[in-house]
C-alpha cells in the first residue's frame, strides 16, 4: 500500500487501511473502492491522507505501534468520558466520575503492553480519522507517544501509569469549552484566547478531585502548555519548575498536533515536525527530552510516497531505527515520468548523494 494525499486519489482507488469515526468505530473499511462521492466526503470530513492499495507496493504495510483493538478501545473510552462531561453543566468542581482512574489505568496498561512487546519501537502513527474526532484520537496518540518516552527513560510501572493517565486526560479541560471554539478557523480574539488557555486549569481542577487519579497525572493537564523558557501558560513556569511528565506530554502534544490536519491549517510532515522540535530544544522544551523523543520517530514513515533529488518517485519500504533519515525506498517512477512495471529498492544508506526532497 502507499500513503497519498487526498488530492492525488482518484475514483476506482481502493482504501488499504480502515478509516475511523470520532468514536473509534469503522467509518470506511479497508478494501472499499472509492467513488468521487466518497472522495468528496473524505475531503469534507477533513481527512487529507489515505492509504491506497497498489499492486507494486502491496507488501509494504505500515505497522502502528499499538494494535487496532487497543487503539479503538482507547479512543472509545476517551470519547465516552469526554462527551459525558460535555453534557454536564459547565461548572468547575464537577462531581467525580466513578472509577475514571481505574478505567484509564487499564487502558494505558494495554498501550504499554503493546509497546513493550515490540522489538523496535519507531513512531509511525497510521490511524486515520475524521476531523470531528481530533480531540479523542489526539489524546490517544499523545498517550502512545508519552509512553514511548517513558519507557525509553526507564520509568517503573507506577511512573508509567501516572504519566499515561495524565497523557490520556491532559486535554480534559477542553470539555468545558463550546465545541465550535476547538476548531475555529479564524484568529482567536483576546477573550477566546483566554477561554482556551483556561482549559489547563479547568482540567487540573477536574482531575485533582478524582479520588483514583494522582496529582502528578493532574499536573499533566495543568502544565502541558508551560514552556522551558517561561513563555507558556497558565503560570509561566520554566525549566525544572515544570514536571517532567508535563514536559513529555507537551512534546507529544505538539508533535501530534503538527502532524495532524486541522480545520485552520494543513499538517506538517513528520520530518518538518521533528525539525521544529529540534529547533525548540532548551527554548520550548528540555533538549534532552526532545533528543530522546526524536530518536523514536520515523521521519519518513513506511508507505510514504516521496520524491528524490534525482526526480525519481518512490514509496518508503523500510526504515532502519539507526538511520531514520535514510530509509529504503521502492522506486516506482523514473525521472522522465516512466511508471515502472518492475519497481526496485534503493537503500539510501548506500547512496549518500541521493536525498528525499519532499513527500506526496
Please give a quick description of this structure.
With 360 residues, the chain is an alpha+beta fold.
What does this structure look like?
This protein is α+β, with helices and mostly antiparallel strands. The chain folds into three domains: 51 residues, Alpha-Beta Complex (Molybdopterin biosynthesis moea protein, domain 2), CATH 3.90.105.10; 227 residues, Hypothetical protein af1432; 55 residues, no CATH class. 39% of the residues lie in helices and 12% in strands. The chain is built from twelve helices and ten strands. The strands form three sheets. It has a five-stranded antiparallel β-sheet with strand order 9-8-7-6-10, with no helix packed on it. Strand 8 and strand 9 form a beta hairpin. Helix 5 crosses helix 9 and helix 9 crosses helix 10. The protein starts with a strand and ends with a strand. The mean pLDDT is 89.
* CATH homologous superfamily assignment of the largest domain: Hypothetical protein af1432
In total, the number of strands is 10
Average pLDDT, rounded to a whole number, is 89
Strand share of the residues? Answer: 5-15%
From the helix content, strand content and strand pairing, which structural class follows? alpha+beta
Q: What would CATH call the class of the largest domain?
A: Mainly Alpha
Strands of the biggest beta sheet: in what spatial order? 9-8-7-6-10
In DSSP terms, counting alpha (H) and pi (I) runs of 4 or more, how many helices? 12
Q: What fold name stands as the CATH topology of the largest domain?
A: Hypothetical protein af1432
Give the end-to-end Cα distance, rounded to a whole number of Å: 14 Å
Outline, from the CA principal axes? Answer: globular
InterPro entries: HD/PDEase_dom (IPR003607), HD_GYP_dom (IPR037522)
Protein name: HD-GYP domain, c-di-GMP phosphodiesterase class II (Or its inactivated variant)
GO molecular function: hydrolase activity
Keywords: Hydrolase
Amino acid at each position: 500500500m502507499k500513503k497519498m494525499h487526498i488530492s492525488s486519489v482518484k475514483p476506482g482507488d481502493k482504501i488499504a487501511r480502515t478509516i475511523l469515526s470520532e468514536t473509534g468505530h469503522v467509518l470506511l473499511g479497508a478494501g472499499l473502492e472509492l467513488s468521487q462521492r466518497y472522495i468528496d466526503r473524505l475531503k469534507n470530513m477533513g481527512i487529507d491522507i489515505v492509504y491506497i492499495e497498489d499492486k507494486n507496493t502491496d507488501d509494504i504495510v505500515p505497522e502502528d505501534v499499538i494494535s487496532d483493538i487497543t487503539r479503538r478501545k482507547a479512543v472509545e473510552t476517551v470519547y465516552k468520558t469526554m462527551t459525558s462531561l460535555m453534557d454536564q453543566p459547565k461548572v468547575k468542581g464537577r462531581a467525580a466520575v466513578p472509577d475514571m482512574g481505574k478505567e484509564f489505568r487499564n487502558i494505558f496498561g494495554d498501550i504499554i503492553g503493546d509497546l513493550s512487546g515490540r522489538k523496535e519501537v519507531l513512531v509511525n502513527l497510521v490511524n486515520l480519522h475524521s476531523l470531528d474526532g481530533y480531540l479523542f484520537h489526539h489524546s490517544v496518540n499523545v498517550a502512545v507517544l508519552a509512553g514511548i518516552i517513558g519507557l525509553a527513560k526507564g520509568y517503573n510501572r507506577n511512573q508509567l501509569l501516572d504519566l499515561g493517565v495524565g497523557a490520556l486526560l491532559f486535554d480534559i479541560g477542553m470539555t468545558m469549552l463550546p465545541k465550535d471554539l476547538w476548531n475555529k478557523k479564524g484568529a482567536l480574539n483576546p477573550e477566546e484566547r483566554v477561554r482556551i488557555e483556561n482549559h489547563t486549569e479547568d482540567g487540573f481542577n477536574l482531575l485533582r478531585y478524582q479520588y483514583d487519579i494522582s496529582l502528578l497525572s493532574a499536573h499533566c493537564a495543568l502544565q502541558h502548555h508551560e514552556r522551558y523558557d517561561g513563555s507558556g501558560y497558565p503560570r509561566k513556569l520554566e525549566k525544572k519548575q515544570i514536571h517532567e511528565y508535563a514536559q513529555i506530554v507537551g512534546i507529544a502534544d505538539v508533535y501530534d498536533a503538527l502532524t495532524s490536519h486541522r480545520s485552520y491549517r494543513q499538517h506538517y510532515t513528520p520530518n518538518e515536525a521533528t525539525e521544529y522540535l529540534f529547533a525548540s530544544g532548551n527554548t520550548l522544551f528540555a533538549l534532552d527530552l526532545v533528543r530522546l523523543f526524536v530518536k523514536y520517530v520515523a521521519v519518513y514513515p513506511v508507505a510514504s510516497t516521496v520524491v528524490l533529488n534525482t526526480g525519481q518517485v518512490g514509496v518508503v519500504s523500510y526504515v532502519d531505527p539507526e538511520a531514520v533519515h535514510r530509509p529504503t525506498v521502492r522506486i516506482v517512477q523514473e525521472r522522465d515520468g516512466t511508471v515502472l512495471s518492475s519497481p526496485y529498492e534503493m537503500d539510501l544508506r548506500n547512496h549518500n548523494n541521493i536525498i528525499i526532497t519532499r513527500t506526496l
